[in-house]
Amino acid sequence: MITRRSAIAAAALPLAGCGRPSEIAGGFTGIQHERGHLLRQSALAGPALAPAATHRTRVVICGAGVAGLAAARSLHLQGIDDFVVLDLEDEAGGNSRGGNVLGIACPLGAHYLPVPGDAAGDVQDLLEELGLRRRAAGRWTYDERYLCHSPQERLYWRGAWQEGLLPMEGVGAATLAQYRRFSLLVTRAQRAAPFSIPAPKGAPAPTHAALAALTMAAWLDREGLDDPQLRWYLDYCCRDDYGCGIATVSAWAGLHYFASRHGFHLPGEGDEYDPVLTWPQGNAWLTARLAAPLGERLKAGRVVQRIAQDRRCVQIDAFDVATRAAQRWQAEHCIVALPLFVAARVVESPPALLRQAAAQARYAPWLVANIYLDEPLRDRPGAAPSWDNVIHGVRGLGYVDAMHQSLDPRPGPTVLSWYLALGDELDGRSQLLQRPWAAWCEQVLAELSLPHPDLRSKARRIDITRYGHAMAVPIPGRLPQGFAREAPQDGRLAFAHSDWASYSIFEEAFTLGHRAGQDVARRLSRVS
After folding, report:
1. pTM of the complete model
2. Mean pLDDT for the chain overall
């Protein structure tokens, strides 16, 4: 739970255009942008500050997102507990942290995990360890309390709600024909070369490399798929998974969205939904359990400034934001579980593989708004309220309902988590950080009032979380580094972050972190 607020607008100040201004509270929360920007300041970007203290440990893990937490768990499983984890924020979890608005848990970022396939064996093991997955009557089953309850998805389309997110109500034969042609092309791509999560080891298949060379929009043009509703749906899917639409992401990524799972099917003609695990606080349910065993080994509020290795050890300099003092850690190995653009800045004499990957990386900013409602909303006609609720033709990606998984049949307050990806906007990052909370508040209320005209009268608080570099975007030319190696490494450094996969999902981050921990443990065992 996020306990410290950094509200930019005072809770009781009037909001221009925000409905009942004196009654809607809130502000910015969750991310300490000023800490990340410390590296840009001359005081810290110049010569390293003299450390106030030097500590020694066998392994330092820089970053406590999913990859860093997975690396810590992996080291522990190999019998290595002499390590520390340094993280910028006050709580572990990265983009998978959770919050609490007036007593209701809600996500601040990632909010679900698809039930992993066999390629994600490390993730399957974690879920078994956490009691989410077990063997029953010869087959694997998942705890039904955490499988997303039905109804799962709906779309507000042409003035009413429909089941599922693919526009179906009132579309013509030509649209349905293009839907079926795209389904056939996804099946052909699956047969030509396997798509999997996480990415397979080894060199990419020639068909994958060819798909990665052009945008999804260019591939659709080539295949003659120009139907507006199909393109809207595919653009939505890409923005939802990658932070950018079909004009930006690669055709490999656009097809991977479907081909790595259960393909693409029209309603009634195949599996409509992939089963997903979800919690009111989103994937923070998972990261909190990964972080809990760390205890004092988790060093929060540390800005990593410099990572330098020589033949004997690795030195990590970090700035403690609580004491305003520099610290130095000396270790035998360091797992760099930082975004590529940060890693390239702080690793002294960065290796070529890091420089190249960082130079190619593009990031999508994201915004998450958590809206507290004191009572249920009235609804438009059509499909029943669902976990995921998407509005056609607006900028936002829709909202999830924090109380959807509740077994309490009594209607009551809830929190709606609304998502917006800004990766396609030229000034997305500056817009994210410079636009005032009141303006974001008005956009959220305006969009969600289309299907819910009583929203303004029932909203009591809106907390907004901003991610300037939320996720790496799989643009043309970028394929997961997992294709080429178990875990990127250089001397005493091992690298682990979802950025290496070129797209940001739990399975890739966890697998890369787990492999990095295994790799470091093997190297330590050879010298002990």
Report:
1. 0.92
2. 90
